[in-house]
């Protein structure tokens, strides 16, 4: 099911300034879910630059696939090593920079285990929250929609999540 997302979208040559204004910025990220005492929890990150709560995501490096980008960005921003479970959705939106569009491909993921967060330049805090609490904390309606879709995929497909028992 995720096969078509494993190939990097082809970029056209940068022939003209006019074309570059319409070329999207490619990015990827994940809705990272785990079970804790039989409840689903979601990983959310705080970015001090924007003072927002969101999911880990970031720009693709040249030649990098969306899956590779998502896995790298999740680890860089949250210190979590994740495992791909299922494709989720591609979201397109305009960035604050003039005439730039961002295309972010999201995946449903689960951690490989427990990881200690290391504060970094982009993220100063991570939290594992219950689904309802995460929906209240997330700064963007689009992220809340992604969370609902990810939960539905996990339930409908009976996907196995990492489980932390305390």
Describe the protein.
The protein is α+β, with helices and mostly antiparallel strands and 166 residues long. It has a single domain (23-158), classed as Nucleoside Triphosphate Pyrophosphohydrolase, CATH 3.90.79. It has helices at residues 3-6, 17-22, 66-78, 131-137, 141-156, and strands at 25-36, 39-47, 52-54, 57-59, 82-94, 101-111, 125-130, 162-164. Strands 1, 2, 3, 4, 5, 6, 7 and 8 form an eight-stranded mixed β-sheet that branches. The longest helix is centred in the C-terminal third of the chain and has 16 residues, at 141-156.
Q: How far is the first residue's CA from the last residue's CA?
A: 34 Å
CATH superfamily: Nucleoside Triphosphate Pyrophosphohydrolase
Number of helices: 5
Indicate the proportion of strand residues. 35-45%
Using the coordinates shown, work out and report the CATH topology.
Nucleoside Triphosphate Pyrophosphohydrolase
Question: Got a strand count?
Answer: 8
The major beta sheet can be summarized as:
8 strands, mixed
What structural class do the secondary elements suggest?
alpha+beta
Helix content: 25-40%
CATH class: Alpha Beta
Number of spatially distinct domains: 1
- Rounded radius of gyration (Å): 16 Å
Give the overall silhouette. Answer: globular
Low-confidence stretches: 1-20
Q: SSE string, helix = H, strand = E?
A: HHEEEEHEEEHHE
* Second-tier CATH architecture: Alpha-Beta Complex
């Amino acid at each position: 099911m995720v096969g078509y997302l494993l190939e990097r979208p082809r970029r056209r040559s940068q022939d003209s300034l006019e074309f570059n204004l319409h070329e999207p910025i490619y990015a990827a990220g994940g809705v990272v879910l785990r079970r804790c005492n039989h409840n689903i929890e979601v990983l959310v990150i705080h970015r001090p630059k924007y003072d927002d709560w969101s999911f880990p995501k970031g720009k693709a490096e040249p030649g990098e696939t969306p899956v590779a980008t998502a896995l790298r960005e999740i680890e860089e921003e949250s210190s979590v090593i994740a495992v791909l479970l299922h494709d989720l959705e591609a979201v397109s939106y305009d960035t604050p920079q003039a005439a730039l569009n961002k295309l972010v491909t999201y995946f449903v993921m689960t951690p490989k285990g427990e990881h200690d967060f290391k504060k970094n330049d982009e993220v100063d805090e991570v939290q594992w929250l219950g689904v309802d609490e995460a929906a209240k904390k997330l700064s963007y309606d689009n992220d809340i929609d992604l969370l609902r879709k990810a939960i539905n995929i996990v339930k409908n497909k009976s996907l196995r999540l990492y489980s932390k028992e305390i």
